[in-house]
Design a protein that fits this description.
With about 80 residues, the chain is of the alpha+beta class. The chain has two helices and four strands; from the N terminus they run βαββαβ.
């Protein structure tokens, strides 16, 4: 299953390799659809592919790290 997310990373965690950790520690495949990074915040459109339970775990991991995660509508068009 694919899940589309909109992520907002606060400045204090911009240097952390969170996407690397997602691919290494969770059975998901992250695919960046678009991003904008400044010195204060990073915004990212991300698509993740995997089993529902792993996607849920990955989203909770991101939230626990301080990332604001908006899960986009499941039946949204392919383009973010």
């Amino acid at each position: 299953m694919k899940r589309k997310l909109f992520l907002s990373f606060p400045q204090k965690i911009l240097g952390e390799p969170l996407l690397y950790t997602l691919g290494r520690d969770f059975k998901v495949v992250p695919n960046i659809q678009g991003a904008s990074i400044s010195k204060d915040v990073a915004l990212m459109a991300l698509e993740m592919d995997g089993e529902v339970a792993e996607l849920d775990r990955a989203v909770e991991f991101l939230r626990a790290k301080g990332v604001d995660v908006e899960v986009l509508k499941e039946n949204a068009p392919d383009k973010i």
